[in-house]
Amino acid sequence: MSGLLSEDVLSHIGNQSEPRREIVTRRDIRKYAIATDNRQSKYLDGDVAPPLFHLHLFWDVVPLNELSPMAYPSTHCCRSFRWKKRWPAGSISATTSRFGQGIG
Q: Please, is 66 exposed, middle or buried when counting C-beta atoms within 10 Å of its C-beta (0-12, 13-18, 19+)?
């Protein structure tokens, strides 16, 4: 490898976990499709899930203050992943009040 990935990250390659099941409704699929701006009718009908829909299903539900800047829970498998080279990127921050005002 070119050194972009740490030994810790590389050590996870090939690891498997036990199969898990989750109940998913058409509404769940529709909400995800809208949130990811993937508004193809097959996704909005709720019969087919958009790509990567399954990734978040088994993440721990944690308070907002325990999420990383990339919105991963602290128990996420890639929590220790760090790029060795800095890449230019933007950021998004939003603030909401308890009454739905002050969104910015």
A: exposed
Phi, psi of 13 (to 5 degrees): -65, 130
Q: Where do runs of H (alpha helix) occur along the chain?
A: 7-10, 26-35, 41-44
| Joined tokens for residue 11 | 């050590």
61-100 confidence digits (pLDDT tens): 888 888 777 666 665 555 455 555 555 555 555 555 555 5
In the chain, which ranges are E strands?
Answer: none
Instruction: Tell me the pLDDT tens digit for each residue of 3-35.
Output: 788 888 889 899 998 888 889 999 999 999 999
Contact yes or no for 95/104 (Cβ under 8 A): yes
SS3 of 67, please? Answer: strand
pTM above 0.85, yes or no: no
Q: What is the DSSP letter of 64?
A: G
